[in-house]
Amino acid sequence: MNQPKIIKTDQQHQQAMERLMLLMDADPKPDSPEAEEIDLLALLIEHYEEKRYPILPPDPIEAIRFRMDQMGLKRADLVPYIGSSSKVSEVLNGKRPLSLNMIRKLSAGLDIPADVLIREPEQRAASDNPFDAQAYPLAEMRKRGYFPGFTGSLQELKEYAAEQLARFFASLPGDYANRPALLRTSAHLRTNDKQMDPPALSVWQVRVLQKAQADKLPAAYQPGSVDGTFMARLAQESWSAQGPLIAREYLNRHGIHLITEPHMPRTYLDGAICKTPDGNPLVALTLRYDRLDNFWFTLMHELAHLALHLDGDCDWFIDDLDAQQVDQQEQEADALAQDALIPADRWQDPPRNIPGVEALAEHLRIAPEIIAGRLRRETDNHRLFGRRFRAKVKHHFDA
Question: Which end of the chain is more exposed for a tag (fewer CB within 10 A), N or C?
Fold first, then answer.
């Protein structure tokens, strides 16, 4: 028996075909060397022809038209699957792409395999890893520009929500792109009685990771570099009127992202910390309360998680600092944050009046708002000191 070889050219294909015809005409006995050669040649020829002359899948619109002819359907009969007479016309004329929602209805109603109708990678990702697209805060995401390039109405967005969300999540590497729920599987949540909305939370997590990807750091993070001393040194930057911006620059120089992104509806977030795929810590703040004291305490709380907890089993610490019932890790983070801002030995006899707040702030070289804010929280008197010590922070990050 001649030893067949992998076919690489049209000439070799022709020779193989001639040899196959010759052997088949000879009608060899089963299990003979010639019969085995026939089987092998047939496989080699089929492999070459599949590569050389691939059969393209049918065009989705042609597949729909073909099924309409088979079933005797008119355009009006497609309205339940596509949405309206005008949409049916646009789809059949190639002026409107099929949405995954339309594909699912057409596949079920007209018995057209979904694989024939799916063409876009985002549709494939959403189809392979289904999630309830309508559960996501689409209107808020559209308002914030989370869907670059999409210019349609909110109703249009709802129609193509699965594709747009798949594209949004695909900005992240690895399994997160297809299974956004993975963002929460190893997260430590500090929540109040109000439950965080999981889809809205995952959207916020993706957004801050997107911002971190675009935030080029001048240095890599050195594990173990953040501790109480580091945090106390950073707290002294609050003395400056530009303290929040100085803090961001200081953290960046140490390989730590500081990202601000407003919380999504029904998430009740103050801040979070995680590590990006490149290993650099990411502190994310929502600035939910536009107060300087809240900024500094939330920042220190997240850095405390970095110093104490982040290298453990959790990939994220996500915090609603209004929550009062907290576990040991949250208590530890609160304590380290407070001590970094105001050492415990300086709080044994806290000030009770404006001159006392100013004097302690000057001694510690920190913003007086930090001291006043702690007094207001501990006394549960948010009118304390009137309009004094109420500097805001959002304006530093609006640009």
Answer: C
Using the Cα atoms of residue 342, residue 345, residue 348 and residue 349 in order, give the sign of their dihedral: negative
| Per-residue tokens: 239 | 């003395």
CA-based nearest residue to 208, from 276, 140, 270: 276
Strand 271-275, strand 281-285: pairing: antiparallel
Residues in the chain where the model's pLDDT stays below 70: 1-2, 55-57, 174-186, 193, 312-314, 399
Q: What's the predicted TM-score (pTM) here?
A: 0.81
Looking at residue 269, its pLDDT comes to: 94
Output the pLDDT for position 380.
93
Quick check: helix, strand or coil at residue 112?
A: coil
Domain residue limits, the chain: 10-52, 60-119, 133-177, 182-345
| Long-range pairs of 190-193 with CB within 8 A, sequence gap ≥ 24 | 190/317, 190/318, 190/319, 190/320, 190/321, 190/323, 190/326, 190/330, 191/268, 191/320, 191/323, 192/268, 192/320, 192/322, 192/323, 192/324
Give per-residue pLDDT as tens, 284-305: 999 999 999 999 999 999 999 9
Q: For the chain, give the number of residues.
A: 399
3-state secondary structure (DSSP) of residue 151: coil
CA 169 to chain centre: 5
Residue 391 near residue 372 (C-beta atoms within 8 A) = no
Query: pLDDT value at position 176?
Result: 56
Nearest to 360 by CA among 237, 368, 378: 368
CB burial readout 24-36, b (16+ within 10 A) else e = eeeeeeeeeeebe
Closest CA to 110 of 79, 85, 81: 81
Q: What is the largest CA-CA distance in the chain?
A: 110
Task: Find out if CATH 1.10.260.40 is the number for domain 60-119.
Answer: yes
